[in-house]
Structures are given as structure tokens and as C-alpha cells.
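In this supplementary section we document a worked example of the pipeline. Step one takes a protein sequence of length 284 as its only input; no multiple sequence alignment statistics are reported here. Step two produces a three-dimensional model, which step three serialises into C-alpha cells for compact storage. The input and output of this example are shown verbatim.
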Amino acid sequence: MRTSNHLIGVLNFLTFLLSIPILGGGIWLSSRANNTDCLKFLQWPLIIIGISIMVVSLAGFAGACYRNTFLMWVYLFVMFFIIAALLGFIIFAYVVTDKGSGRPLINRAYYDYYLEDYSGWLKERVDSYSYWRKISSCIRDSKVCGKMGKNFNGVPESADMFYSRKLSSIESGCCKPLSECGYTYVNETFWTPSGGVVPSTDCNTWNSDQEQLCYSCNSCKAGVLANIRKSWRKVSIINIVILIILVIAYVIGCAAFRNNRRIDNDEPSGEARMTKSQPSRIHL
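The serialised model returned by step three reads:
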């Protein structure tokens, strides 16, 4: 059916356009919390898949419109692996972000984050010294904690006002001590110890020095994981939609490929060929 060629041409043009959000998703992941140079292991799979879909969509578009059998064969061959890779990435993203979330607090609008709530490959990756050194450095350089300060008519934010704020996971995990530590609020990033400090690693690691804060705390790592989890889930929704479209395009592409081969072999579409000029007579 020649209709399949036109349809696969239209679908490949659409998949070319839809590959742009995949590339955008990879770039968006890399820009979360200004961690562009730190989380390359997260965005590169999406960027590679997005570029591959762009190139293959152009090949499929040309192959269908110009009825080029070779281009269609290349298109179907590569598209199969792209679909498999995208499916694998979606499954991988959901598996590694399956566990972990912030813990709600009494009389607080924000959450506290604990590294032990997370598990698996992503936790081990972020918890790695070599990677965490880069990530924490980028968080520090992004000045995300320094941007938390608020003034109302020249008056600094009070403790009650701060407690009612909805902080991001990185702000909560990296810029302040855990609530269980019992520190006394002075301002958004300056807290003083009190007599009821809970003896824990994070409580002892916290430092009001603006260059240290809680960048070395496990709560900061957990906050980064929560941020990654939220970002990956959003990008995965786009990937699922694109995967469905790619599968439909692949099925129609198979029909277009058969149509191109039929035309190359001078086989009229829908016309059956007889092996004998005349049917044999039955002799009684």
C-alpha cells in the first residue's frame, strides 16, 4: 500500500519534532540546580537517544517519500535498537528512582531528607566520593543556599516564616541542618547549636560557615537524589509517549518497506500472479 509510505513519512516528521523534547529533557536534567558539569551520567543517555531519533527519522522520512528501499532498511534496523534503548532507559529510570522521598515534619512546610531512605545504583553513584565532590562543588558554586535569604521591608525572615516555607530538596538537605539536630534558627543558613543536639553524623557535620553548611552531609546527598528522582519521573512521562509513537511508526515502516520492495520487484500492489497461463483441464 502506497498509503503506508505517506503515513510513515508523516510519522517520521512528527518523531523528528518529538525528538526535540528528548534533547530538551537531557539538557533540562543537566541544568537542574546548576549541576551542568556534575551529573553528566544522567543526561547523556537522553541526549544520545534524542540525536539518534532525529537522524533516523530523517532517514525514514527520505526513504518513505522517495521509496528508497535501502534507507528504509537502515531506518528499520536502527529504529529497532533505538526503541529497545529507549524502553531500557525508561525501565532503568523507574527502577533506580523507585525508593526514597522526603520525611514530613510537624509544624514544618518543608521535608527532611535521609540517605538511608534511598537504595540502589543511583544512591551508590551519588554517594561515591569522586562524584559527590563534583556535585557538592557545583551546588556550592550555584549559590543556591545564598539565594534563600528573604527580607520583608528590610526585616529578615523570622523562624516561623521560614518554617512555613516550601523548600526544594536541595535547599532543605544542603542549606540547613536536620530538624532532629535541635539547632536554633538565626537566619536561613545560619543556625546555632543548642543543648539538645542529637548525636549523629549530619548534626556534627553541619557548619554555619557559608562555604561548608551541610554540603558534606548525607542529607544533602539525599536532597540531590530526591531532586534527580523528581526530574527523571517527569522526563520519563515524555519518553513513554514518544516510545508509543515510535512503535507505531516502526510497525507502519515495516509495511512501507514491503511496499518499496514490491515496487522494486515490479510487483503490482494487490494483484496476484498466476504461475500458469491457463488452468489445467480435468479429463474424465
